[in-house]
Write a structure and sequence with these properties.
Length: about 325
């Protein structure tokens, strides 16, 4: 039986990790594997049956799509699928799967960590330590404080469970309003987000990037928040109108922000976000625990086995919604 052809999009610095991964060895025996960077993607896609986008930050797939004459399945090594969500892909018969589930708990730990950093003023303590200054301060409790998690998928649920475990009051915002949710309790409709933002001390953005969520956090959203509120973005940079966020932080419209994702990455060196005292910046790493790269390959390998044997694939994305539909 003819082996399927698998194209694998990876950066030069990622190829070694892939080729040395034990999870790829059975795949290399079962398929013709074409490892490629962005420049060679079109050639690798010709007559390929499947595409593994291991370089999940790459935006090369749309430009190479014309060569995908036989493609049946595309898997991306991330939970977000916006780098491969374009009209040609959306309108095709190609099945799209993602790596949902890998980063849930790690991102939840990050969100708890930055909330504690703000509440306990840990960033100031580090500055004072470096200056050899003994300056007593009082800090905030997080127990009893309220959090709105915007995005009710698996990552949002992991965040909700972790924050509830430390005594915070959590609600969600998603496509439809409901009550009695096992993780969020109340879920507000994200279409009416501005109506609900005033009630929360922290707002965590983890929604997928879609036409409906792009620019969701704009001047009106930040104006609706408490002046004492802190904003955390672990979703997508494009969820936020950056200029509006900068203005809200500069004028005291909100008290602070922890940002792991940005509409331009790397964050430009001249961005005012770097030097704002009330901002915590991290370089798109909130979910990246030690060993995550290998885990992503293992997730793909499991789905490859399913695809090859005709079993149902995991994490099939609804291409019209732009994410894997939740059961809840």
């Amino acid at each position: 039986m003819e082996k399927p052809v698998l194209a694998v999009l990876c950066g030069d610095d990622q190829a070694r990790n892939l080729t040395e991964s034990p999870a790829m060895q059975p795949i290399e025996s079962a398929a013709v594997v074409r490892y490629t960077g962005e420049a060679g993607l079109a050639d690798a896609l010709r007559d390929a049956d499947a595409l593994f986008v291991y370089d999940f930050l790459s935006r090369a797939v749309p430009d190479a799509w014309h060569a995908a004459n036989r493609l049946r399945w595309l898997h991306i090594a991330s939970a977000g699928v916006d780098p491969v969500m374009f009209p040609g892909m959306r309108d095709s018969d190609v099945v799209l799967t993602n790596s949902r589930g890998v980063f849930d708990d790690s991102i939840a730990e990050y969100v708890l960590g930055v909330i504690l950093t703000f509440a306990k003023d840990l960033h100031t303590s580090l500055d004072l330590q470096r200056a050899s200054r003994w300056q007593h301060r009082e800090t905030e409790r997080i127990a009893g404080r309220s959090v709105l998690v915007v995005g009710t998928g698996p990552i949002g649920r992991a965040i909700a469970r972790m924050l509830r475990a430390v005594g915070m009051r959590v609600a969600g915002a998603g496509r439809r309003a409901r009550s009695g949710d096992p993780d969020f309790g109340d879920v507000h409709a994200s279409g009416r987000l501005v109506d609900h933002l005033p009630g929360y001390d922290y707002v965590a953005a983890v929604a997928p990037l879609t036409e409906q969520t792009k620019g969701l956090f704009d001047a009106a959203a930040f104006a609706a928040m408490k002046p004492s509120a802190r904003f955390v973005n672990v979703g997508r940079g494009e969820l936020v109108v950056t200029a509006d966020l900068v203005e809200a932080l500069r004028t005291g419209g909100i008290a602070g922000a922890a940002l792991d994702v940005f509409d331009t990455e790397p964050l430009p060196v001249d961005s005012p976000l770097w030097t704002m005292r009330n901002v915590l910046v991290s370089p798109h790493m909130s979910g990246d625990f030690i060993g995550w790269r290998d885990t992503l390959v293992e997730v793909f390998a499991d789905n490859f086995h399913r695809w090859q044997t005709g079993a149902p694939l995991r994490n099939v994305v609804d291409k019209q919604l732009g994410y894997v539909p939740s059961d809840r």
